[in-house]
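Weekly structure sync, notes
Attendees: PL (lead), two postdocs, one rotation student
Agenda item 3: pending single-chain targets
PL asked that the sequence for the first pending target be pasted directly into the notes so everyone works from the same version. It is reproduced below exactly as submitted, 475 residues in total.
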Amino acid sequence: MAAADSAPAASSSAECSVAPSMPTDPDFLSCVLQPPTPSSSRPDADYAALRRLLLRRKPPSALQHRMEWRCNGKGYVAYRNFLLRRIDGGSAHSTPSNSGRWAHSPGPALSEADSWSSIRDLRTNSGLSRTVSLGSKQSDTERHVRFAEPAYSFVGMHCIFDSCKTSVTILKFGRASSDLLAYGAADGGLTVCQVSEPPSVLQKLIGHSKNITDFDFSSNNQYIASCSLDKTVRVWEISKGTCIRVVYGVSSQLCICFHPVNNNLLLVGNANKEINAINFSTGRGISKLNFDDAVTALDVDHTGQLIFAGDAQGYIYTVSVNSHTGSLSRTHKNKSSKSKSPITTIQYRTFSLVARCPVLISCAQDGNLSFFSIATDAKGYLTLICSLKLASRVQTIRASFCPLLSLEKGEFIVTGSEDANVYFYDLARPKNSCVNKLQGHGSPVIGVAWNHGENLLASSDSDGTVIVWKRAKTN
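Predicted structure, written out during the meeting:
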């Protein structure tokens, strides 16, 4: 290295020769950055050059890190998998049959956004982020051309299950699973499928004699707990296809879920105006809590400390639960709408960008969709943020959050309808809230459910058909 009078040239040379991406030993850097000592016979020319270089290499901002995983498909799913890594998402093993089938052609009318794919590609290349979608027949305003959100554009049907001959009342994907799907029917049958290649039926669980009203997967997807209008709760071992436990009640059992922290605890709402906490291993009741009317829907927050339950009069209750003992206590009572219509859906979500806190949606029989913020420091007190009035329903139609796009903007939900379409709504929009719809069913759509990766959406109808839709990839 040259002497002090040639330091500028040496600095320039050092700046050009050192690659910013090369790993550097921290101990070496700490030594290099030390100023020359007074006893040095000559100053170190590399000190100024390396300091200038390191100051120019600023660390990436936290905002850029968030943008990398926020709502860009694979990055978001990887982030959520990290948060849920304690959950074992293995699916059941069984001999698959050939009851499932691929949908060979999506058809021209599956999604309103599909016929505009060329326009979507042009707009994507030009930097625009929305696709054109024809207006649905929901209102005069929505008859005009609208824009569909690209994250909820679909390329067609992934597969179809049509072996059921009666109405499919409820369907769900396995916990932390993108492949395991189950659906319950009005004849009491419960079917477990896989949707990957080849799509097939794994098990048909026969035991209930009447309409299956609800079911839930255990955290490891080894068991299913189901409830029915036949007044029983049944526990099934999926791999063997057998019922290992039956709990008899005195009234119709209407909703059920596993406790998220203590999976030995089952929570069941019934027509006898009760929520019962049941020991999964023994089938014995641990505790129960009485309400003003039949408990028709429920969900539990991620901590397992709060239960949110809806009744047949349109009220939503917040209930505290002890994860160890299973004891229940009522804390709040909220009215979801002015009408006295049964609640068909209660769904909790950990966070919303709109509310900046945990949120809840409720769907009532009369078509009222309500979106609440949850005050966790006030034992789950609910505050209504916005609501959406849809057409009144005869069927018990369910709704679900669309968490993928909701992480970016708006508050999106998906719901079935009696006009045989699947609708996507943004609750944050006062007008033109319908952003897309899927067409393919031939009868009223009752149930909807997302898989874990949110690349597949399953919907069921009153004719017994289950369609698994494939979401379009977005960059």
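Discussion points:
- The chain has seven helices and 31 strands.
- The longest helix spans residues 45-56.
Action: rotation student to compare against the earlier draft before next sync.
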